[in-house]
Amino acid sequence: MLFIIGNRDDLFKAQSHISQDIFIKIFDDITIMDAIYGEHRDYLSAGGYSLVAQTKQDLLTVLKLFDYHAHPFEWAEKVTDDYISVLYVFNNDFSITIYMPLSICPHDYIDFEEDFIL
Asked: Is the pTM of this model over 0.85?
């Protein structure tokens, strides 16, 4: 199931479906966005949001939101042993971070020879 998380309410609704490590990371992201753009912002137009994609089908749904193949990512990092986060910056005031299992992430994000995220 794909989760769109732009505020704490969204995060707490998804809490039982995501790991504690991912929850904490997204909570930190939301806290920063709230401090910069306001707690009650329209996150679809100001600041941005996080996506938690858990299946390959979820990634196909993400493609309906934006073409992550065509848009270069700003940053990718391993969040846990089996999860990655990938940051896309669209302008100075809007970004999307995708959290997904390594098992489904596109190969562009992984340097297999070095065994770490680019």
From this structure: yes
**Exposure letters 13-42 (e unless 16+ CB within 10 A, then b):** ebeeebeeebbebbeebbeebbeebeeebe
Condensed to tens digits (0 to 9), the pLDDT of residues 31-49 reads 999 999 998 999 999 999 9
| pLDDT tens digits, one per residue of 5-27 | 999 999 999 999 999 999 999 99
51 strand-pairing partners? 4, 98
**105 φ, ψ to 5°?**
-70, 145
The phi, psi pair for 57, rounded to 5°, reads -65, -40
At 107, give phi and psi (nearest 5°).
-65, -20
